[in-house]
UniProtKB/TrEMBL annotation:
SUPFAM superfamilies: Heme-dependent catalase-like
Protein name: Catalase
GO molecular function, one term: heme binding
UniProt cross-references to InterPro entries, sorted A to Z: Catalase_sf
Biological source species: Chryseobacterium hagamense
Length: 333
């Protein structure tokens, strides 16, 4: 196997036009969060994506005993503490309807002293339908404006239509059919993916969580939130943590997120474990206000790529606005 490619700042560089669109998008994020309590009819400001929390839990990240020697410097402890948030990707909290199977599995990794090591917001679909930063920013801005009634559904549809051509890849179509077949499966039976690329020191990686022995039909008659809580209150949960490394940009592109990486093996680096009954109150202020901004991670675990770079300011403006509004609302549960 050749040596992995090294990270370079050029993978993250935005153009002047993209930076201008990002400023417009940041304003739309702040506007959305300021009105999110009305959008979702709740007593606090929500996130502008993954607004609905299914559960918050504590767990452990157990490092594999047979970790390859070249990876050992990045994981110098045998285990790390975790805070995990399970969510739905929709920007609005919807009640009384069947949730779309667009799920989030966010992981906060800390050492034994409580120092943050890394944040990884993972999702149950391994690809992203947009490669163009400009197209994404225009779409994301239109979604925010649509929900706060500052943009028509026609305008939003026009932005969506621009995305459709980039979904016509073999990888994307295959995974759409796979998700459709699994659409009714239990939340914790899905694999979860980083979608974008992250640093591993000088290397670049993608991440995958693969649950062990979780029945896909668990809680079939329950709402997703109730099923997740029921499972974690009656079962321990374990998932394999695997990574792929980037060796060749042709086979493992950094800024083309609508295709799967190929010709790079999955390497198991450890396991996530959640003990039975290790749930936290998802509505407690300190848990609702959790941030999983991947740019708060240690430098050698931070995101890579142009679309990933957008997350830095998006997470910051969303969190700052949520904190300001929730302080004014005196939200404490």
């Amino acid at each position: 196997m050749p040596s992995p490619l090294k990270y370079n700042k050029r993978f993250d560089k935005l153009t002047d036009e993209e930076r201008e669109l990002l400023e417009i998008n940041k304003k739309s994020i702040a506007d959305f969060v300021e009105q999110s309590s009305s959008v979702s009819d709740v007593g606090y400001a929500t996130r502008n994506a993954h607004a609905k929390t299914y559960a918050v839990a504590e767990g452990k990240f157990i490092i594999a005993g047979n970790l390859p020697e070249y990876l050992q410097p990045f994981f110098d402890k045998s285990q790390y503490d975790l805070t995990l948030r399970f969510s739905n990707a929709h920007p609005k909290i919807i009640r009384g309807k069947k949730d779309i199977p667009a799920y989030g599995f966010a992981v906060k990794i800390k050492d034994e002293n409580g120092v943050l090591v890394a944040n990884y917001p993972l999702v149950n679909f391994p690809l992203f339908p947009i490669n163009s930063v400009s197209t994404f920013l225009k779409l994301f801005t239109s979604v925010n404006r649509f929900f706060i009634k500052k943009w028509s559904s026609f305008s939003l549809m026009m932005q969506i239509l621009k995305v459709i051509p980039s979904t016509f890849t073999g990888s994307f179509v295959k995974n759409i059919f796979k998700l459709w077949r699994k659409r009714n499966d239990f939340f914790l039976s899905f694999d979860y993916h980083s979608v974008g690329v992250y640093r591993l020191g000088d290397y670049m990686m993608k991440i995958k969580l693969k649950p062990q022995s979780v029945p896909k039909n668990f809680g079939k008659k329950l709402k997703v939130k109730d099923a997740v809580e029921n499972y974690l209150n009656t079962n321990a949960f374990t998932a394999d943590v695997m990574i792929q490394l980037c060796y060749d940009l042709k086979d493992q592109p950094v800024n083309q997120l609508n295709v799967e990486w190929k010709n790079t093996p999955f390497i198991k680096i450890g396991e996530i474990k959640i003990d039975q009954g290790n749930l936290l109150d998802p509505y407690a202020c300190e848990n609702e206000m959790l941030s999983f901004n991947p740019f708060e991670s240690k430098i050698f675990f931070q995101p890579v790529g142009k679309l990933q770079k957008l997350r830095e300011d998006a997470y910051k403006i969303s969190m700052q606005t949520r904190m300001k509004i929730n302080k004014l609302l005196k939200y404490n549960k």
